[in-house]
Hints:
This protein has 149 residues and is mostly helical. The chain has five helices and four strands; from the N terminus they run αααββαββα. The strands form two sheets. A two-stranded antiparallel ribbon has the order 1-2.
Amino acid sequence: MCDLSERATLWVIDAHSLVTAVAAGAAWGRHPLRVKLAAVISLGASMPDKGWKRAERQHARDVGTERIPVTGERDGADFVSGPFAYQLKVRKVIPAWIGAWLGGICAMAARSNRTGVLVLNRPHRPRRAALVVLRWSDWVELHGGDGDE
């Protein structure tokens, strides 16, 4: 049985590389990262809960569904609910002007009990290519499930 040492952690990383290489067509025996996969599996260590994965799970629950695990079968959707397929992107920086414009329209809309919606389009692009931006809380209120926040 393997202990949970630094080497064992490296084995988990190497096992992922090995599985990726085998899936890409490399021969198991010729791969330079020969790892006893059974030993890696026996570690019992789970994948750390990354921030983006936690965010996907929380947002999915907001609309009454669950996060779709990465299996290669989800075609880019992080979660689905009703007629909507969602892909969440968590970024440290979102352009400040988006927040400013969205904040302005949301403040104006709130005065008349409406939902603020920001529509973004580039010059000389068809209207159907425009992007619609609204606050997640407004989206959940309009289309959500029984989730929190």
